[in-house]
Amino acid sequence: MFNLKEELGNLENKGLKRRLLPLETSQGEEIVIAGKKCLNLCSNNYLGLANDLRLEEAAIAAIKEYGIGSGASRLVSGNVRLYEKLESDLAHFKGSEASLVFNSGYSANLGIISSLVNEKDIIFSDKLNHASIIDGIILSRAEFRRYAHKDMEMLEAGLKGSAGFRRRLIITDTVFSMDGDIAPLPKIAALAKKYQAEILVDEAHATGIFGATGSGMVEHFGLKAEIAFQMGTLSKAAGCFGAYISADKDAIDYFINRARSFIYTTSLPAAVLAASIKALEIIQAEPQRRKKLLANAKFFRDSLKKLGLDTLDSETQIIPVVLAEAVEFSRRLFKAGIFCSAIRPPTVPQNSSRLRITVMATHTGEQLEFALEKIKEIAKELGVI
Known about the structure:
single chain, 385 residues, Aspartate Aminotransferase, domain 1, 7-stranded mixed sheet
């Protein structure tokens, strides 16, 4: 018989048991968590929009007009007009014919992948892709080939041997959520063209940050015409909730009819939609936010490297610090007034536990200097540097 208490004890003994900590404030650059005021270094609220007054006002106005709950799924209880506005704005933002909003990035990947391919098809997926991508692939029943992280030779070798499949689909994060590095999209696009494959990208950690208008890495590399499916989220840089897929109109109509996580899910509240519409507007109107974010990230990453800490190949606002002592390091940071969670297996590979540091556009220079000083002190105490 499967013993849950025993399994929990095993996790505890391995230092892998997770616990929820009570958050008492909004997701700002400073928070109160577990009763302690801390500098926040582990939020995906990259542009500082999660507590922006303009988003709050938009959400409140929508509540007054539409109420709180949405009643049922969009196909059952009606499609709130705000969905039409948000999806039209997203299509324009992403440079696609149409877009479709899902309730979360996880449900989007499950629904998109499992409806797009089946056992007649083959998927090539980067080894470090998000768990939602992996689960969507498993649900699809397609042939599944993982290629080593960003290994284009391995990807090409797999594509060469895939001629017998109906559809070949390459899936990759554009910014990898635990390493903070960037997928080689131009090389992937070239291979897809050579072997008649399609590409699905997950722009969760790039949306709102990269590209001339902030629409993501696809825009940054000028590859809108080469990439068929652009998925992303509204819960990170946009500071809201939900996710989207941008593609041609036929694909969007197909997902409406076949994506189970869309069809059988109660729709998002109007307040969330209104806030997301406002967030997209701000992202495009205030490019200084993403410029400040990337400047903060570069300063912090370069400073960590100068201390001799391992930040892997991070190039973005996500800055890992790989440490065997990650849990203890996180505990000491918290004691010093800095909240930064330790990330452990299975979220990351064995022997690569880390602090996953994320900076925000709204962090001040003084806050970042304070964090660096404390990191330096603790690293010396633990013999890391």
